[in-house]
Write a structure and sequence with these properties.
Layout (H helix, E strand, L loop, with lengths): L22 E2 L3 H4 L3 E2 L5 E3 L2 E7 L5 E9 L3 E2 L5 E9 L9 E11 L2 E10 L2 E5 L9 E8 L4 E8 L5 E7 L8 E11 L2 E2 L4 E2 L2 E10 L4 E2 L5 E7 L2 E2 L1 E5 L5 E5 L1
Amino acid sequence: MHLNSALISSFLLASVSLAGRPRSQRQNLVQKPANTSSDGVVYNNGFAGLVWPLDNGTFYSVNGTVTIPKVSGPTNASATIAVGIDGTVCPGSSAILQAGVDAIVTSSGIDYKAWFESDSYTDIDNNLMISASDHIQLTVQAWDEHSGFAVIKNLNTGQQASRQLQSSEPLCRQKVYCGVETMWTADTMFPFPSFDAVTFTDAVATSTSGQPYGPQGAMIYDIELNGTVMTSVTCLADYSVTIKYV
C-alpha cells in the first residue's frame, strides 16, 4: 500500500527481471473507502501496519527497525516493508517520501532489494546486500515541504544506503506510516506472499518540535483481499508493532 514506482516491463513476463520495481498500493489508504471495524482496525487491500494521522505540518520523521522475514509464494509473489511520510493525503497532491525493502519470489529464490521513493523519483540500491533475518533500520525525514532524506541500514553488516529525496509537489507532513504493503502494476496486484512475523522495534514518528509518537497513538491497518483478512497487527510494549500473516 504505498506508492512505489515502475518495475520494468519485463517483470510482467514469465521470466522476471528485477531491475526496477512496481508501484505499491498505498494510495488505497486514502483514495478508496476504508472498511473500519468496531475495534477501530481499518481493512484495505494494500497496507498492514501503523498510520499516524495528525495535522498538516506535524511530522519530521518516521523510524523503525525490522527483521527481514522469510517469504514464500508463487514466482512473482511480492511484498514490501516500508516507512514513509504522506502519499496522496495532501489535497491535490501525490507528494510522498518513503523507503523500504522489497521481497520478491523468483524462480531461484527470494530477492530482497532496498529502495527509495518520492513522487518524482524511485531508486533501487543494488549495492546494499539484504538477506532474510537481517536487522534493517529504516528512517525517512521531511526537511521541508519539498525535500527530505532517507537511510536504510543493515545492522548485521554495518552497510547502509541513503538518498536525499525531492518532492515535486508540496508535502503536508500530516501522515506517517510503517508496515507491510502489497505491490501492484497499474491495477493488477502481484500475488501476496506468506511471510514470517514482521516486528518493527523503535517504531516511532517524530514531530517537527521533536515530540515522539509511539504505536499507542497510531491507527491500525490490516490487509483484506477478496473478503479474506490476510494480516494481523498487534502493538507491543514500548515502541514495537508486529504484523503477522494469517
